[in-house]
């Protein structure tokens, strides 16, 4: 072994200067006796020898002279030029032979901890990474599952070249790191054939508690976890008592696996997706290793680990960045921002069922409050200011209202004076607001987003988002109260003055109309019916995994066995559906993609119809319409004036207003796609400038942070690195999603005690949950708890849909559901209306269903009694 260029893994000469941050850390861990896979270092001196012998430094510096940080294309061009120089240059013969010999020796004598084959991991190790004051980790490349001496040499050279990726160049510029004299080390280690892997934080990264450790765990190699491709299980362990404090088992949809000298991402088998990766004993064992590492470094650490054959391997350790100070108390604080106000999870908050992303919580709610303030001025004659505003509490959106005697009188007067405009012109106002929102979205949709400056992009986002918020205030004061009032008045009139024993329920008069929801469902059914006429296409759609179909859709690839013209026609028809109905939102937070961006969710619905598991929407609508007309004719035939006149007028009003409510709620997403397109473009520019790791990370920044980065781009200044802020915020969001947000604050007020789910909150292990019985019937089935589109693939025909709430974008799931249970909503919510139209039991406003019920649990939904009975059983 050439000692200047190669060192054994635990060699005392493995310092930051000789082996980089990753290499020095692994040497320290290995020397301390921790279970680190065996390997060796290719030192920074080897890199300098390679560059010097091939005369590469002048070419590197010449390529860097062409870089303009404000133009990402110049970064990519410079990186490509340098990469070409490295590819064309040979590794000096003596160095190459030494590396090959070290690889052969390693794979012949490696530890029993590791595999029985010759696969290795080849990882870059920069001299400025993994330091407490810097966050250079991840700027360079690593290559897994490398076999054979020649492949190792190639991987080493690719690691060296990755010192000059576009992202690394931008990163060093913004941190004022000199480009001259840089070097890179490489670590070659036996590859652990990980059955599971993840990250261990030796302190709780959310609360800052040093007495707790948090583990993220997923199946397969660690790339999927570190790269954010999978939502991992989360296990919190008390470091002193060695007890598991909490456990969240995620739906782990993908994993990284070894394939033919490389790695690939593939779907997790269905039987493993919702299975816990680590048992308690293994989690505690891992935390004990973490405590040793923490003592070795004298500070909280972020540890990468893998599990193979029941043995844990430590792959890396670095200090935790941005660790919060320990919380003063562990209880959840629901203190009101304004002590004089009441806060309710109502109005727009019903369309934000989960904790909001940081960008929406700052930018989105700020603009929502601008629109709400204008509504206050319109109705109350004064600016609403802090008396009527949205706020976030522990990530959840609440509407705050100051509701003393003075305010009650003000609202009462406004309601009386404006009732004619609200109820009489609600539909017309919705149509006008819809036109304005479409105009605002179209204005920015037609402009090439790549040619817009950062400030123009932000202007466009704000204009469309403000118009969308204004749109909500219009339907909030128009179609929604109009529909509710008309339905309530009609059903009360019918029940008190018309209905006789044996007559149908009043809601039967309001079903069977062509809403956007119904039309979208019929469109999906039509797609399935067309596909049935093409046997090869039909078979492919049924038997191909939805994830693979979505990939083929995205890449415009024709599946094997399907004629190209048939696939082209199918794509055209499916695209027409997306263009027509793909704008609806899963919720109002723009962190969530639209159905048009996630076609896999709709493909599942098409597959359901192809397999004959869904109800024909045409037949269901025809039956509902026939019952509606027969019931109306029967009533009109037996009652006389003046009841007949009132019946006709109230029925006509309700039949116009109720469908308008559904359509206006669907319209909430009309600006969603263009907002996301502009934010994703801006996020991509932040990535090119070295501020973020992925374009979608922009949603985890706050408004001021985005403004500052955009301004820096405009000034052509180096961008600060914000990537370290993202993982803790995502982790905090995941933790907040497990909370039970009170429906109203303060929780001790008489108003809060009147909410339907008040009693449900008092029992952590209930046998039944009470709520609103929104649709009659009784069903026992397997619960499927869904929080958003990322969970939709779990839904199976016959499952009981359990959600915080639903929107028109969720409707395809109702065709699979045997019953519906929600946390919020009432008899006039979207969930209730669609459940009644489908004729399935529904219980709304349980408050805690998504937290008290677990996917796979067998439950009984009694829509007539408004009760959900819980069992301890799980699906077989």
Give a structural overview.
With 876 residues, this protein is of the alpha+beta class. The protein has five domains: 6-190, Dna Ligase, domain 1 (2-Layer Sandwich); 196-319, ATP-grasp fold, B domain (D-amino Acid Aminotransferase, Chain A, domain 1); 341-486 and 670-736, no CATH class; 499-638, no CATH class; 756-874, Phosphohistidine domain (Glucose Oxidase, domain 1, 3-Layer(bba) Sandwich), CATH 3.50.30. It contains 29 helices and 25 strands. The strands form five sheets. It has an eight-stranded mixed sheet, with helices on one face. A six-stranded antiparallel sheet has the order 9-8-7-6-12-13. A five-stranded antiparallel sheet has the order 1-2-5-3-4. The two termini are 58 Å apart. Mean pLDDT is 85; it is low at 111-116 and 129-138.
Task: Label the structural class.
Answer: alpha+beta
Average pLDDT across residues? 85
Question: What is the radius of gyration?
Answer: 30 Å
Q: Count of helical segments? A: 29
